[in-house]
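Colleagues,

For the teaching module next term, I've prepared a clean inverse folding example: a structure given as tokens, and then the sequence designed for it. I'd like students to try predicting residues themselves before seeing the answer, so please don't circulate the second half yet.
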């Protein structure tokens, strides 16, 4: 039995994200992710402003007036949301945990997909794949995906991106648009990422929190690694410690960015203290220009 409070939260996310999809992202998702090709549909009389390159000269000669060919896009894309549900997602120094941001962002992507008549599926993973929802169409299906994102209680604590991508390759035969949503606070996944990128249109979405970039000066603090449970006492009043922490975080981010750059893979970076809408819009615009 799903708790009433969860159903209320699902409904709130549906209302909030649908407004974003309709008011901000209308048409941009469709333009950024085109279908598999163009299929001939019909011929129709030429109208002023039509592209003369589409004139069907055989039909025009037969009827004594110009006709143009019309095509329709073969849409039918499959969008897979591959989401990191490990314990590190249950962290947030602002009003939201990283997993909350990931859930709402995935809802926006899912509603954008079904608005374009695409199918949406979900893979939830920790150090193993914990939940798989095959891709389907429809609002009820998207609401189920949102419920899974909010309601799922992960069994594992760690993160294994390679296992998730290998599972994706096994269950999706055709090429899909894959949004890989994680904080990427792990390593050793580059080979699996390269393989998945060759088979799918892979878009990593990096979710982070301000405290993963710098520490505030608040004296002694006991920190817990959510994936291992290890506790560490640190003195945040130490300027050298704060500088070393920021340098280590920056180094890790640069290494990750360099890896994605070598693979010519575009990323979307979102944070718990900022709106995810602007990075999403910039990404869609960039994809549309490239296409």
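(Answer key — instructors only)
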């Amino acid at each position: 039995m799903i708790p009433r409070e969860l159903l209320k939260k699902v409904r709130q996310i549906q209302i909030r994200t649908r407004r974003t999809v309709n008011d901000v992202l209308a048409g941009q998702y469709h333009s950024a992710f085109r279908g598999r090709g163009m299929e001939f549909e019909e011929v129709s009389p030429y109208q002023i402003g039509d592209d003369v390159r589409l004139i069907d000269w055989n039909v025009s000669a037969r009827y004594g007036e110009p006709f143009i060919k019309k095509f329709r896009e073969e849409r039918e894309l499959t969008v897979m949301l591959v989401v990191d549900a490990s314990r590190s997602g249950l962290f947030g120094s602002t009003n939201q945990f990283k997993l909350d941001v990931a859930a709402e962002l995935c809802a926006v992507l899912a509603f954008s997909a079904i608005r374009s008549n695409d199918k949406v599926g979900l893979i939830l993973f920790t150090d193993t794949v914990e939940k798989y929802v095959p891709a389907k169409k429809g609002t009820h299906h998207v609401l189920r995906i949102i419920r899974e994102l909010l309601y799922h209680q992960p069994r594992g604590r760690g993160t294994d991106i390679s296992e998730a991508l290998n599972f994706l390759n096994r269950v999706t035969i055709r090429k899909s648009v894959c949004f890989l949503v994680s904080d990427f606070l792990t390593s050793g996944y580059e080979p699996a990422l390269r393989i998945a990128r060759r088979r799918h249109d892979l878009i990593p979405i990096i979710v982070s929190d301000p405290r993963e970039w710098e520490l505030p000066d608040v004296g002694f603090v006991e920190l817990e690694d959510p994936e291992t449970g290890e506790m560490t006492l640190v003195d945040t009043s130490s300027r050298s410690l704060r500088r070393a922490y920021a340098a280590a975080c920056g180094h890790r981010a640069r290494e990750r960015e360099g890896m994605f750059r070598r693979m010519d893979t575009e990323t979307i970076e979102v944070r718990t203290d900022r709106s995810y809408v602007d990075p999403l819009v910039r990404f869609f615009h960039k994809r549309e220009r490239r296409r």
